[in-house]
Amino acid sequence: MCEWTPSAESAVVEDRSAARHARRFLDDHWCVEHAALLRGHADLIASELVTEAVSHGTPPVVLRVDCEGADGVVIEVSDRDPNGPRFQAVGPDEAHTTNLVEVLSDEWGVRTRPGGKTVWSRLVV
Ligand SMILES: [Zn+2]
Questions:
Q1: In the record, which residues are listed under signal peptide (predicted)?
Q2: Chain-wide mean pLDDT for the chain?
Q3: Distance from Cα 23 to the centre of ligand 1, integer Å
């Protein structure tokens, strides 16, 4: 975490309002000191991550945000399903499909552990 904004996490409401709640969570815990310019992408990424976890994962789903200053902001969503994620594909044709998190993140990945996974995305100014 940075010197301005503590990291924060929250259980995700597991219904169709999940993405809206995720954006509200970012409203409350976003580091405007370091990452004001990243907020648009962050909203889209957090929405996509929680929607995937609520749709395909196993509860409970937890959203986390952590500002690392010059190293960027990390958004993470964890759930109890070690498989996946299964993001909706975007792209011009089947041979070039990707997903929104891949497109918008500077880095992203999946950490698996016994009984669950965390999908993370890093945005750098
Ligand atoms: Zn910060």
A1: none
A2: 94
A3: 17
